[in-house]
Amino acid sequence: MKQSGLIKSSIAILSLLAAQFAIAQNSPAGLWKTIDDKTGKVKSLVRISESGGEFQGKIEKLFREADQDPNPKCDKCEGSNKDQPLIGLTILFNIKKDGDEFGGGKILDPANGKLYSSKLKLIDSNKKLEVRGYIGMPMFGRTQTWVREE
């Protein structure tokens, strides 16, 4: 009898872990490779985390050419982000789940220092993330596809 109870407990624990993994994969939380629109090369790694139902994304690593500054600053940013290092910079913030998508927040483009409204959508079995930045209405914007690293 003790062994069947152990088996049932083990199955219950494994089921809970599988459910938590499935939920985690249904979330944009994780490490993402950003891809340069022009070159198609990996540009950076962005870690998206969740706290209190809101998602934020910080640049963790940059992939730079040998002739580029390995530690660039956000020289075109304004306010508290002005001249801050790109590595560690929060570029996505206040994103919340909205049905099958995530939105309501902003994304910072460090290349021009501008803030845009943002929407995120998981695609390709949650292995990719469509990141849309726009002004006013989502139809007036640009979408990048990020690839899940972990």
TrEMBL record:
<feature type="signal peptide">
    <location>
        <begin position="1"/>
        <end position="24"/>
    </location>
</feature>
<protein>
    <submittedName>
        <fullName>DUF2147 domain-containing protein</fullName>
    </submittedName>
</protein>
<feature type="domain" description="DUF2147">
    <location>
        <begin position="30"/>
        <end position="148"/>
    </location>
</feature>
<dbReference type="InterPro" id="IPR019223">
    <property type="entry name" value="DUF2147"/>
</dbReference>
<dbReference type="Pfam" id="PF09917">
    <property type="entry name" value="DUF2147"/>
</dbReference>
<keyword id="KW-0732">Signal</keyword>
